[in-house]
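Researcher: Good morning. I'm working through a list of sequences from a screen, and I'd like to move beyond sequence-only analysis. For each chain I'm collecting a predicted structure so we can compare shapes side by side. This is the next one on the list. No need for commentary yet; just the structure.
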Amino acid sequence: MTQEDGDLDSLVRKRIRALRVAQGWSLEELATRARLSQSSLSRIENGQRRLALDQLVTLARALDTTLDQLVETAADNVVISPMIDGTHGLMRWPIKGEPGMSVVRQRMTEPPPDNPSRMRAHPGREWLVVLSGTAILMLGHRRFRIETNQAAEFPTMMPHAIGAESGPCEILGIFDRDARRGHQRDGGDCDAQGTCE
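Model: Good morning. Structure tokens for this chain:
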């Protein structure tokens, strides 16, 4: 076994124990959920028993995680630089652990459109926080005022648009995979009026 293999082995064992403790489970509880004996689980956690792939799969399921997450090594590249779209005033960061999700920072200067036909609807969910200024979220026929440090979360199947109120505002939004696809299908991110498409 190489040093790297030994480090991974130790890391996985520590993760199993840490996840068990975080759930508030005893050795007996996790062993029951994973259909292992308590002594086998104890020996796995303490490095006295070989890690078998079938046991790792079972333990990952019992711990409500994936095998990939259980054996993932520490990433050297933890800092993510933004992709910048100067035309739309956007900065975007992909979320590596959740492919398809992204974080977008945007400065808005225009109010949301008055015309409901300019609102967009698509599958997914969006979450946003106002970093500065005041944003207006049009959601169907409702109008929400979101001030600095307030957040909003909404299903994007409801027609929606976001804009600024009485001067510029800056928002940070998180788009799930479906919402991100919806924005791409509609032909862009946000137009000059702050309408996220």
